[in-house]
Amino acid sequence: MDRVIEAFPILPLLFDGLISFHIPWLQYLVSQPWHVNICGSQHHVAGMEKFSQYRDRGSGIAPFLPIPTEASGIALPFHIFLFSVRVPLLLTVTLFYFLFLQWLPLGPLAKKAALWVILGVPGIWWVDLQIDGVKKGSLAQNARRLPSPGTIIASSSASPIDALYLAAIFDPVFTASYPSTRLVQPITLFQAILRAFLPPQETPHPNARLVNLQTMLAEYPNQPIVVFPECTTTNGKGILPFAPSLLTAPRNTKVFPVSLRYTAPDITTPIPASFGTFLWNLCSKPTHCIRVRIAEAVYRTSTAPSESGPAVKTSSYKTNFFDAMQEDTASNVEILVAEDTQSAGSLNKEERVFLDKVADALARLGRVKRVGLGVREKQHFVQSWTKSRGRRR
């Protein structure tokens, strides 16, 4: 950074001049401990080795550590300009939708268009979509391979953008899962977005309305149901143990594993209350790309109904190491299913196989591995992380 300042001595004056305008959000931006990332420093990464106990023992993956933000360097003034323009516009459009537009008797297309406007403001313009068994250009002939009303979406969970994108594409009903119960809690889109910034919960609120997925499908026959079986967000580098909520799906109901990953990956929110960092990473960069992968439907039966003749192993991906790591992604199914399921009843062999298929599909789609760290470990990690950050301040 010193070399950059020597080459461009106007940068400190420009930065100080912007602060002298007394813009409230910019003062807040500079006052936060994470603002050093904007200036090109990576000192916040130092000391992360103390969280090595929160790495998966088998793979060494740390699914809860935040992704470091790439230094802005000489592009800092441009990033500040983008941030200053986009944040007011994003907040205005978002508040207008959730406070006014969503309550109007508009059709799904109008609401989806509004959600795409929200996604477009911070530069989420590129979506790389691939579906198992579907060649490019033949999606219209394979609509059955997409989530539709009466089906369930088992989605990865890494960012508030997950719920926003799924709502803009499928217009689903969202649910919250917990490791301690097979039931799910119906939630709104806004609640699904907000949960990405909240601490992980092992148990639902005492007054929460809990139902099974069969009831959800009956109550909302014209919309798919979204389940986040990991119960909390990660940094996108691993698949956490599943809650048993998917087991309440009726037999022969299609469950579509859907993996969402981001470029750049620093718009994930594995740390609760990271709204300021997320907003900067989202709005200060020119564009973002979402990598969406949808697997073939998984059923709760040992033999799935045939859709188009005999089963043929096809995939839209090229064969590589990640597609062949069947044994590496999960060393033990009993470990990689949420351990706190005694209150929900023990799992039989068929149920474990079903959850294993969905989790393996998400790991393959995301080109990551399954880990043995769950909600309880993330709670301990967040406590340690908060204490560490508090001592630095």
Explain the overall architecture.
The chain has 393 residues and is α/β, with parallel strands linked by helices. It is built from 12 helices and 9 strands. The strands form 2 sheets. Strands 1-8-7-2-5-3-4 form a 7-stranded mixed beta sheet, sandwiched between helices. It has a two-stranded parallel ribbon with strand order 6-9. The longest helix has 24 residues, at 76-99. It is globular and about 55 Å long.
Throw out a few tags for this protein.
globular; 12 helices; membrane; 9 strands; transferase; alpha/beta; transmembrane helix; disordered N terminus; 393 residues
The main sheet comes to: 7 strands, mixed
Mean pLDDT: 81
- The first-to-last residue Cα distance is 23 Å
Q: How many β-strand stretches?
A: 9
Low-confidence stretches: 1-47, 302-335
Shape: globular
Q: What structural class should be given to the helix and strand makeup?
A: alpha/beta
Roughly how many Å is the radius of gyration?
22 Å
Portion of residues within helices: 25-40%
Strand order of the largest sheet: 1-8-7-2-5-3-4
Strand content: 5-15%
How many alpha or pi helices? 12
SSE order in H/E notation?
HHHHHEEHEEHHEEEHEHHEH
